Every structure is written in structure tokens, then in C-alpha cells.
């Protein structure tokens, strides 16, 4: 097998292949629903919703209208579909207005009409719609508590959908009797489409009682008003068996698994054997980093469990339990932990990044690391372990010039991790 002369360039090419496999123009054109007798209304939410809308417009033959919402700075120009922008990862007034626009867009439809829902990761924060008993500030409080809790995305969304007038299938219920076809780009480990963006057009089985158990398990400090709401029957979300959903269809058009396979194919074409560890890894980012480091060390030093050279690939969504006041997302936290685990062991390089182009709240998708990362930090009088302890991984990689900034990608199939061992 060929040696990789430029590890960083090699790893970037794998990321590009993974993102390309989830490109909206490619996957939407292959998943167009049948044209209806009546109107076609497009709605959508997520970090890649604008690019999905543009791709749908390009591929669709016939009249359409609609509105989608994406993160600030992630917009794209569309002819007939209005693109709104709102805040992520915490909701804002822009998201409130967008939720109302989406609900208005699907009101008054008939059984001959078609609603196409373009759903991808990030939609939960972009669609705040608190019930009358609650406020935008209450929904922000829920999101802030969940983001700091270390809870997996499935648990987060089970809570989110019970404090909303639009999530948990409620947007699809508002569109009844029109048929709703949801085209979903999954950023959820296990690819449960009902959990992507808290399922505005897809109901899932999680109940209000489940949400209360999650609040207790993760010790979420929620205002008393929110707890009273969750304890009331008014918070119940539609069930998957609701007859209003009988004619609806869900199509999973892109996922982490497909993207990892594309990255693996690219690696093999370049002469490096690729191993996909999993497309659904969850858990604390720093713990997952240590496990990846242990596998990389064993491969580098003993040629097991995989022969060298090889690249280890994984996806899913790790979590970060916030303990400090630093900056950094889950991918940079994973990577700083991994760097500590491979310190001084030559021939190991890694990239960890979010496929939407943004890791956490900064402008980087992730970062690069190798066996020299810790030594280079020490040369700058920076203690990697201390930075990790206060969740300040961004500062570490920023100091080294090792942040990865591809910009918004227009899609979102969650985390991408590649560890090259030579």
C-alpha cells in the first residue's frame, strides 16, 4: 500500500467524499415524490435546508411554493421557496417567526395537495414554537439545559417535542388532509428519521412520561413553569398511529453510513485500507476520543486489530457535558482527548469534524491532530489536559493553527472522524 505524504490533505479528501455523498442535489433528485393533483408546498428546517430547497426547485417539474428555515449565514438563493434564517444552537425570535410561517404555509390545504418536508439536523433550535403557557425564554432554557447535560440527541428531542407546537409530528398534523412526504437527511445515530430536528413532520413513540424521566435522569434544571407543563396532558404529542399521518411517507435520503462508505472508497482508491468502526457512536466526546486513541495505538505499535497503513472511520454524535467556561464543540473535544492518547506515537494523524461545517458555536467544523499536537501545545505553554477539563478545546487548536474551516456544506450527516495510522 502507498504511503500518504500529506496526511492532512488525505484526511480532507475523505471528508469531502463523505459530504459529497450527502449532497442535496444528488440525493433529492433521486427521491422526488409523485406530482399531486393539487398544489405542491415545500417546507423545511435545518442547517442544510436552504440547499435542499434549491436542489428540490431545480429537480421539480411543475409549480410550487413554500418556506424553509436555516441557520444564520447558511442561506441559499431560491426562486419560489422563501428562505428564512434563525439562531442555532439556541432559538431566537427569528425562529419563532419562521415556525409561524411554516405553520401558515400548510394551513387550509386539501387532500389533493402535497407537502414536501425537507428536514435535516439543526432544525430543533431553528423551530421554536412554545405553547401559550410557555415563552421563547422557556424554550431557550430547555435547549440550554439539554446542550449542557451530556444527554444523547434522542433524549434531547424527546423533551423538545413536548414543549412545542410544531415538533413531534405537529407540523404534519397541521397540514392534514394534505399528503406529507418527508425527505430526511439523518444526523441521528441509528437513523431514526422521527428524531431528526425533533420530527416536525414525523411522530415518534416517546411519551411525555419519557420526557419527564429524561429530565430526572440528567438532572435538568428547568423552571417550575416548564415542569408543570410537562406534567400536564396538554403537553402530549401525536402518536405515530394518529390517522392524520396515514397517507404520509418518510424517505431517508442521506445518512452517516452512506457517507462513511464513500470516504472508505476514497481511501482505498488512494491505496489505504479503511475500517468503519461504527456510524452510530454516542457518549462523552472525550471518552470516545480515548477509545479511538487506544485502537490507533494498538494498530500503530502492534499491527492489531488492523494492519498498517489504515484509516479508522466513524460517525454518530458524541456529547459534551459542560463543566468549564471554554470554547469548543464535540469534535474538537474528541480530538484533544485523542491527541493526549496518541502523544509521541509517530505516524498517527486525525481529523474530526461536523459534516455541516460547524462544530459547536464557532466557525470551524472541527480540527486536525497528530502525534505532535501535545508537544506543540507545551511549546506554547498550553496544558492540553487543563484545556480539556474546562471544555476549551477550540483554544488549543486555534493556538496551533489546526482548526478545520470548510464553511457551511449544505448538508448534515453528523460527526465525521478519520484516524490515519502509517
From TrEMBL:
Residues 11-230 form the MOFRL-associated domain. SUPFAM superfamilies: GckA/TtuD-like. The keyword Kinase applies. Residues 311-415 form the MOFRL domain. Keywords: Kinase, Plasmid, Transferase. InterPro entries: GK-like_C_sf, GK_N_sf, MOFRL, MOFRL_assoc_dom, MOFRL_protein. Pfam families: DUF4147 (PF13660), MOFRL (PF05161). The keyword Ion transport does not apply. This is Glycerate kinase. It comes from the Bacteria. One of its GO terms (molecular function) is kinase activity.
